[in-house]
């Protein structure tokens, strides 16, 4: 993973990566620099700010380069000790960037607060999904440790408990 250079990006907490990957569908992705600006803009969004504040108040490390702009095979992702990547080659508008950041910040929050979270455990991953079942299934199926059957079983097993766990929000957003 290559980091971009340029002081303003690092100061804004945005890293750049240029891992080769195909673009999605026929909708053109936004230019990389526009995506980086979109990440900076999303950092000002009330929900993104709320999540960052909740992470900090829970003692989570919110390092300056938590989020990086990348070229990759999905819309975005979170990995422990690596942070969040927003896949610019899949972004077409500001709202997509903001929604990916919110989604991945929730994973980062869960990873910090739930000290025993194991991302190779399909049920743990399923519990971190704040989406409806169909969206949760899509996300958990993308985990290389979870087959489609294991993802469905995991979601069914944890749904009632995890669906009602809205932390860090007071209620479902």
Please explain how this structure is put together:
Belongs to the peptidase M76 family. GO terms for molecular function: metal ion binding; metalloendopeptidase activity. It is globular, with a radius of gyration of 16 Å. With 173 residues, it is of the alpha/beta class. Helices cover 46% and strands 9% of the residues. The chain has two domains: 1-113, no CATH class; 116-173, no CATH class. The protein has helices at residues 7-11, 32-42, 46-57, 94-113, 122-128, 133-141, 148-163; strands at residues 14-16, 67-70, 76-79, 83-87. Helix 2 (32-42) crosses helix 4 (94-113). A hairpin with a 3-residue loop joins strand 3 (76-79) and strand 4 (83-87). A four-stranded mixed beta sheet has the order 1-2-4-3.
Fold blueprint:
Blueprint: H1 7-11, E1 14-16, H2 32-42, H3 46-57, E2 67-70, E3 76-79, E4 83-87, H4 94-113, H5 122-128, H6 133-141, H7 148-163
Parallel strand pairs: 1-2, 2-4
Antiparallel strand pairs: 3-4
Structure described in brief:
Keywords: Hydrolase, Metal-binding, Metalloprotease, Protease. With 173 residues, this protein is α/β, with parallel strands linked by helices.
Query: Mean pLDDT, nearest integer?
Result: 80
- Overall morphology: globular
Report the portion of residues in β strands: 5-15%
Question: What share of the residues lie within helices?
Answer: 40-55%
N/C terminus separation: 33 Å
Radius of gyration computed on alpha carbons: 16 Å
Biased composition (Basic and acidic residues): 12-22
Protein name: Mitochondrial inner membrane protease ATP23
Keywords: Hydrolase, Metal-binding, Metalloprotease, Protease
Pfam family, one: Peptidase_M76
